[in-house]
Structure formats: structure tokens, C-alpha cells
Amino acid sequence: MGSLVHRDDDVDINQPLLPESTSHLGSKASTSEEEDQETKQLASRIWIETRKLWKIVGPAIFSRVVSYSMNVITQAFAGHLGEVELAAISIANTVIVGFNFGLLLGMASALETLCGQAFGAKRYRMLGIYLQRSWIVLFLCCFVLLPFYIFAAPILKLLGQPDDVAESSGVVACWLIPLHFSFAFQFPLQRFLQSQLKNIVIAWVSLAGLIVNVLMSWLLIYVFDFGLVGAAVSLDISWWVLVFGLYGYAVCGGCPLTWSGFSMEAFSGLWEFLKLSAASGVMLWYLSIN
Predict the structure, then answer these.
(1) Which residue intervals make up region (Disordered) (predicted)?
(2) pLDDT of the residue at 17
């Protein structure tokens, strides 16, 4: 009887409870499930971040494309007037307006840093102050750049353009002076709203400006036959629609935290603001011409 009794001492404690093959398969299955779960979580996070990113980037891309499209559309309408007219408005837009556009856009880009920092620090009132300072600085710089428009014809002749094209471009450039001054207000407004993640507002206003541009180009060039002057005026009106649209949203309740009205504080620290804006403007202008 003693030989039939099972003793615990005879049991090998190192022997696995399950066969080795079964344990290995279970471990592989568990690892595979964990990897699948991690992959699904990663894909979900990527999708969420992508949606957040495109909510910001998508309207910004659209508004920038619309801004350039307005010039192209007006040039397309003007192309039916003749080769000289097409060359004149193309050169006025590309050389004269393009030079000043890049410089003023770069100067307004200083707001991206200042407004972004102020918004992140919850100093919301300072966004409105920075916006007004940028308006003042860019508006004064528009007067400094004004000779490029007034003396566009002799400048283009000096660059080797034919006399008829240079004279026509000079006429267009003078009529584009209102467009030039619109940059001083529109660019800071865009940066002011972008820092608050209000890109969708910029996109809707840009769409309205594009519609106005097509309508005014057709009316002034085809219907009323104003020629090159009509093409220039259609651009002036379209870009000022953008200014008034963005300004109306900002000051009429769209930005209650960051816009508290006009303030004399905007006139303080203008020299430091000018230096920062000038450095930003030169940098972006240099990149745009290379």
C-alpha cells in the first residue's frame, strides 16, 4: 500500500502546468492582440489630430488661394482688352504690387508671434493693442512705399519695358493705390484672427471677396467698358471688401475678449514694434523673391 501512495516530493516543480507549445501560442496571441489594440489607438489619435489640423490649415489655405485668385481672375478679364492691356496689368500686379505685397505681409507677420504669445498667456486685451499698433506702422509704411506706384512708369522704363507697356502699367499702378493701402489693414486683421483660431471667418470673408471680384470685373470691364481702369478698380473694391468684412467681425462682437475698442496705448512702444515688423518684413520679402 505504501508504494501506491502518491508523494508530493516526487513532483517536478519546474515542469510547466501547460504543455510548452500551448503556453507559447497563448503568449503570441496575447501579444498580437496588444499590438492590434495599440495600432487602432494610434490610428484613432492620428485621425483626431488630422481633423484638428485641417480645421485650422484648410481655411487658411483656401483664403490664401482666393487672395491670389482675385488678381488672376481680373487679369483674365483684362486679357480680352488686348496684349498691351494684359501686359500692363500683369506687370503692375507682379512687379509693383508684388514687391509691396511681400514687404507689408512680412511686416504684419510680426503679429503672429506677439498675438500668439499674448493669447497663450491669456492677456487677451493685448491682442487688440498689438493689432492697432500694426495698423499704425503699416499705414505709415504705405506712404513710404507710395513712390513705387506714383513713379511706376519711369521705373518700368528704367527696367527695360517698352514705352507703351510702361505707360499703361503706370496708369494701372496709380489706380491700384487704394489696393495698396488695404494691405495695411487686412494683413494685421488676418493675423489677429488666426491667433484666435478663427480661420473659418477669414475663409468666408475671402469667398465673399472672390464673388465680388468676379462680379465687379465683369461689370467694369465688359458691361461699362472702363478698360484697365475698371480692372484696377475691381481689385480695389474686392480687397477692401476683405478689410471691411474682417474688421466688422472683429469689432462687432466676434472677438469680445480680444477687442475692447481703440486705445491710446496703441501709440506707445511704436519704435520697438516698427523694428520687429521691419525685420519680419525684410525676411519674408527676401524669401518671396528668391
Answers:
(1) 1-37
(2) 46
